[in-house]
TrEMBL record:
Alphabetized Gene3D superfamilies for the sequence: 3.40.630.30
Lipid metabolism recorded as keyword: no
Name recorded for this polypeptide: N-alpha-acetyltransferase 40
The species this protein was found in: Fistulifera solaris (Oleaginous diatom)
Domain N-acetyltransferase: 45-201
Cell compartment(s), UniProt: Cytoplasm; Nucleus
Cellular component aspect of the GO annotation: cytoplasm; nucleus
Top EC group: transferase
Keywords: Acyltransferase, Cytoplasm, Nucleus, Transferase
E.C. number: 2.3.1.257
GO molecular function: histone H2A acetyltransferase activity; histone H4 acetyltransferase activity; protein N-terminal-serine acetyltransferase activity
Top-rank lineage group of the source organism: Eukaryota
């Protein structure tokens, strides 16, 4: 990429990296609540202010075995640091008893740190309590993520899925996610995961 193009890309990244809570914008908050519907309450946390212990607990219960089986291994100290990162953003769903039902960890990122080509909306985690799974909440939350990408004027949502996690792979594929050009499989590399993406239309 030429220096001029990198400068434009950097400017775009800095713009989206300044975006704060979507719930502070009445139009965006209203749309998110319309998408979610039902007996749910949304809260937003920037990384350092997030309820890290609760997020980490749900992550370990849902994903611990997948990580232990992977080449990455399970490093909860590192994961806690990731959740608390200054650029981490969390949309957390609570039920009518104020218990956490689900959360999404997302960030505005470059598609590749060393050779960036795009600024993308990256969903790092979508975690749902077991009793609230298979009720459509995950689909609604991904629609929320896609709307947030659109509201930031970004056209791509990316995420990572373990091959071992076949139910998650099928879930995202059913939502229209495809293998991204940056995924290891595109370079004939054998990894435990695939990077998926979905193009979203401008608002």
């Amino acid at each position: 990429m030429k220096a001029k193009d990198l400068k434009v890309l950097r400017k775009k990244f800095l713009r989206v990296d300044r975006i704060g809570s979507p719930l502070d914008d009445s139009k965006i908050a209203g749309q998110l609540n319309d998408i979610l519907s039902g007996p749910w309450k949304l809260k937003y946390f920037a990384g350092p202010s997030a309820p890290i212990d609760s997020l980490l607990d749900l992550f370990e219960r849902n994903m611990g075995d997948f990580y232990r089986k992977s080449s990455w291994g399970l490093d909860l100290v590192q994961k806690a640091d990731d959740l608390a990162h200054r650029r981490a953003r969390h949309l957390v769903v609570y039920d009518d008893n104020e218990h956490m039902a689900a959360y999404c960890h997302y960030q505005y990122d470059y598609d590749d740190e060393e050779h960036p080509e795009r600024v993308v909306f990256y969903v790092y985690e979508l975690q749902i309590e077991e009793k609230y799974q298979r009720l459509g909440l995950g689909t609604k939350l991904m629609k929320c993520m896609e709307y947030l990408a659109q509201s930031a004027d970004l056209d791509s949502v990316l995420l990572t899925v373990f091959f071992e996690n076949t139910s998650a792979m099928a879930f995202y594929q059913n939502l229209g996610y495809e293998v991204d050009v940056s995924s290891p499989s595109k370079f004939n590399q054998r990894e435990d995961y695939e990077i998926l993406f979905k193009k979203v239309d401008a608002l």
